[in-house]
């Protein structure tokens, strides 16, 4: 059986569309966006905590720990790595 619906991939797609489209921002429900942002922040905090306490993970191990798809875990790891790189460059 396949992995089914990947909520992190769905969220990544939503974030990309929100960032790129003023039209989507005009029709998006602000309450839904706030809930999504809160959920994503909680996931990122959980990933940071796991990385700090248990060391580096590959996407499969992180996916198993968080109950996400491997693609979702890869998205989170990549996002956090980009943020860290941007912070280090500043």
List the helices and strands and how they pair.
Layout: H1 7-20, H2 22-27, H3 30-54, H4 59-66, H5 70-89
Helix pairs in contact: 1-5, 4-5
Overview of the structural elements:
It is built from five helices and no strands. With 90 residues, it is mainly alpha-helical. The protein has one domain. The termini are far apart.
Shape: globular
Number of domains: 1
First and last CA, distance: 45 Å
Q: Helices and strands: which structural class?
A: mainly alpha
Largest sheet features:
none
Which strand-content bin applies to the residues?
under 5%
Low-confidence stretches: none
Q: List the helices and strands in order.
A: HHHHH
Number of strands: 0
Oligomer kind: single chain
Count of separate DSSP helical elements: 5
Question: What level of helicity do the residues show?
Answer: over 70%
- Summarize model confidence as the mean pLDDT: 80
Q: What is the radius of gyration?
A: 14 Å
Index terms:
0% strand, mainly alpha, 90 residues, 5 helices
Describe the structure concisely for a colleague.
This protein is an all-alpha fold and 90 residues long.
């Amino acid at each position: 059986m396949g992995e089914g619906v990947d909520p992190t991939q769905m969220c990544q797609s939503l974030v990309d569309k929100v960032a790129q489209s003023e039209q989507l921002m005009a029709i998006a429900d602000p309450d839904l966006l706030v809930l999504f942002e809160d959920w994503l922040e909680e996931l990122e905090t959980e990933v940071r905590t796991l990385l700090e306490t248990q060391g580096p993970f590959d996407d499969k191990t992180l996916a198993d720990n968080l109950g996400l798809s491997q693609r979702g875990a890869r998205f989170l790891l990549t996002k956090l790595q980009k943020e860290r790189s941007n912070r280090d460059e500043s």
